[in-house]
C-alpha cells in the first residue's frame, strides 16, 4: 500500500528512468507483494497482476541482475502455483544470473530456496552453502534475510490462484 502511494511521485520525478532505481524499486515492491501472497492475501488475483505489471516494466532490461530478479519472481510464483519443477529451474537460473551480476547475497537466497525444494543431501548441501556464505558476511539470522529477499517458502500454496492465465503471465 505504501509503495502504491509513493510510486506515482517517483514517476513524476523521473526517478524510475534511472535503471538501478527502477530495478531495485521493482524488486522491493514485488518481494512485498509475494510475501503478502504467501501469507494468504484475499486479493491474490490483484496482487499477481501487480507483480506481472512490475516485472513487465523491467522485462526489456537484459542486465543479469534484472533478468535474475524476474526469474526469481517466476520461481516464487511457480511455488505458489505448486509447479515445483518450474520453481526449481527458476531458482537455479536466477542464482546463476545473480552470480554473473556479483549479487552474491540474492544468489545464495535463491540457492537456499532451491535447497528447500531439492530432496536429500543435495538440498541440505545447498542450504548449508547459503547459510555459510551469509554467515561469512556477518549475517546472524540467515533465515530472516532469505525471508526478506525470497519471501515465498517452499511449502506455500495459493488455492485461490487459478492456473496461470495469459493476462497475469510474467514476461
Topology, please?
Blueprint: H1 2-12, H2 19-38, H3 44-58, H4 64-81, H5 84-100, H6 104-117, H7 120-136, H8 142-149
Helix pairs in contact: 2-3, 2-4, 3-4, 4-5, 5-6, 6-7
Q: Main beta sheet, described? A: none
Average the pLDDT over all residues and give the rounded result.
84
Determine the structural class based on helices, strands and strand pairing: mainly alpha
What proportion of the residues is helical, as a percent range?
Answer: over 70%
Number of helices: 8
The percent range for strand residues is under 5%
> What Rg is obtained from the alpha carbons, in whole angstroms?
16 Å
Please trace the helix and strand order, writing H or E for each element.
HHHHHHHH
| Strands, total number | 0
Shape: globular
Distance between the termini: 24 Å
Poorly predicted sequence stretches spanning 5 or more consecutive residues? 162-168
Amino acid at each position: 500500500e505504501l509503495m502504491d502511494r509513493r510510486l506515482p511521485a517517483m514517476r513524476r520525478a523521473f526517478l524510475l528512468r534511472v535503471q538501478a532505481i527502477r530495478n531495485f524499486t521493482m524488486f522491493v515492491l514485488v518481494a512485498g507483494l509475494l510475501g503478502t501472497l504467501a501469507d494468504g492475501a484475499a486479493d491474490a488475483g490483484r496482487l499477481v497482476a501487480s507483480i506481472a505489471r512490475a516485472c513487465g516494466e523491467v522485462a526489456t532490461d537484459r542486465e543479469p541482475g534484472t533478468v535474475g530478479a524476474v526469474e526469481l519472481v517466476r520461481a516464487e510464483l511457480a511455488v505458489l502455483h505448486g509447479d515445483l519443477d518450474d520453481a526449481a529451474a527458476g531458482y537455479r537460473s536466477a542464482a546463476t544470473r545473480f552470480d554473473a551480476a556479483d549479487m552474491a547475497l540474492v544468489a545464495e537466497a535463491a540457492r537456499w530456496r532451491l535447497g528447500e525444494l531439492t530432496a536429500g543431501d543435495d538440498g541440505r548441501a545447498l542450504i548449508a552453502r547459503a547459510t555459510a556464505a551469509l554467515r561469512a558476511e556477518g549475517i546472524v539470522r540467515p533465515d530472516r534475510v532469505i525471508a526478506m529477499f525470497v519471501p515465498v517458502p517452499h511449502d506455500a500454496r495459493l488455492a485461490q490462484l487459478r492456473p496461470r492465465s495469459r493476462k497475469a503471465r510474467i514476461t
